[in-house]
Amino acid sequence: MGVMLQAFYWDCPKEENQEFEWWNFVKAKIPSLQATGFTALWLPPANKAANIGGMSMGYDPYDFYDLGEFDQKGSVKTWFGSKDELIDLIKAIHDNRMQVYADFVLNHSNGADEQEVNPLDNKLRWTKFTPASGKFARDWTCFHPSSFERWDDKEFGEIPDLCHRHPYVYSEMLELARWMIEDIRFDGFRYDFVLGYSGWLVKSILERIYTKEHTTNFAPFGVGECWDNDQTIDQWLDEVNNWSDNPGTAFDFPLRDKLKNLCDDYGYSMMNMISGGTLSDDRPSSAVTFVENHDIMRTNPVVNDKMMAYAWILTHEGYPCVFWYDYFNLNLAQEETQNGIAALIKVHEQYAVGNKDILYTDDDVYIMEREGVNNQPGLVFVLNNNGDNWQGRHVKTNTVNARFEAIAWRGKNDLGKPEDEWTDANGNAEFWAPPRGYAVYVIA
């Protein structure tokens, strides 16, 4: 399915000394990202934000149609750059045969120009929006409480909460999605805070037929940030995908919880990794797997041995998403070695296909085989949770009389390459991994 890069982190323009230049900064890295094997980039919200108290990451949208061309809210550009620079970035991504997804914030708006009294509860709120783009002007009737909806899922803090059942708001949301896809040329969306509104809105956007780049039936990609347990994610996916010709996906937060424990809780049993309860276990075609993102990084980051988690998501089912800060700032890319994310991306794109067969699991060691598809070979993946010693186990694979070579590996304090292994006439062999590390073997 490819490998996605989340091409930002919180306050990245400031942290990288790239304020108002982030689009150009990302564009310069596109050729090397494509050469590594990335197939898509997820960009931060591109719209002009409220910018209350300073420049914003965009999750407080003010003018949905201002991508950095109108002088409002303290700047012409967004914190990431101008509209023209964004369009140039999207073109560069497409020229390098990758897709690009927009972070879509549909639940709320912020930074209104005037306060209004909502006569339904007689409360004063900031709900009068007169954006410079002249598009999607809003007043109190567009927000909750509303005569069009008696109940809303959740609010995002104190920010005015849009009522999507209002015919005007609903039609504007669909037009905004069309404009982002057909005119700005995005290939899909990451839907922010989907717990705040009903899944039928996402379904409506995914189901619509778009015309894009000579394709008259373009189907956009969609992934929801349903930050909850597996049952809630399942329910959201059912609502979005029921009778759909273009099903959406969701981030696998339950798997991320397990990966966090695996990396940071020494002695965490590998048996927990096969106990189910994750999206990638239950409905892998709907799972976007990840290790870190812009939100979790600030509150509950993985602190230790993060490459164990990346080795997992880049060898298993699901659509893996790599985090910019991990890849570049923590220097986990390791593009010139076999010990980093870059090598695992190549593993994912060339070998991580076919059915998954768990060959062995105990508290310390996990061994899994991907069986391959047609002429595309599979792999054997070994994860060692023991912090002191190399560990290996005898397993029965689906491949007989073959030599296996490690093509990606890493231990906590040991980068030594695992030795080649040979399967016998029955497919039996012993596969090893370094302490607190992993090894990926393929047929040599």
Short description:
It contains 13 helices and 22 strands. With 444 residues, it is an alpha/beta fold. It has 2 domains: 4-251, Glycosidases (TIM Barrel); 356-443, Immunoglobulin-like (Sandwich), CATH 2.60.40.1180.
Helices and strands, with pairings:
Layout: E1 4-6, H1 12-15, H2 22-27, H3 30-36, E2 40-43, E3 48-49, E4 61-63, H4 83-95, E5 99-104, E6 114-118, E7 123-128, H5 167-183, E8 188-191, H6 199-207, E9 210-212, E10 215-218, E11 221-224, H7 230-241, E12 249-251, H8 253-264, H9 279-282, E13 287-290, H10 296-299, H11 306-313, E14 319-323, H12 324-329, H13 341-350, E15 356-361, E16 365-370, E17 379-384, E18 391-396, E19 403-410, E20 421-422, E21 428-433, E22 437-443
Parallel strand pairs: 1-2, 1-14, 2-5, 5-8, 8-11, 11-12, 12-13, 13-14
Antiparallel strand pairs: 3-4, 6-7, 9-10, 15-16, 16-17, 17-22, 18-21, 19-20, 19-22
* Beta-strand percent range: 15-25%
Could you say what the CATH architecture of the largest domain is?
A: Alpha-Beta Barrel
Largest sheet: 8 strands, parallel, barrel
What's the CATH topology label of the largest domain? TIM Barrel
Uncertain spans: none
Q: Over all CA atoms, what is the radius of gyration?
A: 23 Å
Shape field: elongated
CATH superfamily placement of the largest domain:
Glycosidases
Mean pLDDT comes to 96
Distance between the termini: 24 Å
Tell me roughly what share of residues is in helical segments.
Answer: 25-40%
Structural class: alpha/beta
Number of strands: 22
Q: In order across it, which strands form the biggest sheet?
A: 1-2-5-8-11-12-13-14
Tally of helical runs: 13
